From TrEMBL:
Species in which this protein is naturally found: Laribacter hongkongensis (strain HLHK9)
Keywords: Membrane, Transmembrane, Transmembrane helix
Keyword Membrane recorded: yes
Protein name in the entry: Putative transmembrane protein
Domain of life from the UniProt record: Bacteria
Residue ranges of the TM segments: 20-43, 64-97
Amino acid sequence: MYEPVVRPAGPQLKTLTLVVYGLQALSLLTVITLLVGVIVNYVKLDDVRGTLYESHFRWQIRTFWWSCVWGLLSALTWWIFGLGFLIGGVAFVWFIYRVVRGFLNLNDGKSMPF
């Protein structure tokens, strides 16, 4: 796995990364937290550059954008014999996997793949 650690990072960056994973998890109840999380990612991206947390931020950003793609695809195909529901279900499981895997790697001090 790619280890981008170039400079040490303070505990506040780990907390911030954990908060964004929490916001992503909460988005299963209210989608607005997913948007808040990605805004935090983009605003604080320079602060985490060159640290272990940069890979997590990029993972979280990709999770957001791919979730948007899967959600749109699901919405556009809902009328085709349940295809939209199938796509939405797979996207839902994929999203949970991404959040859980990211959280576990963060907890273990590991980076995420780029």
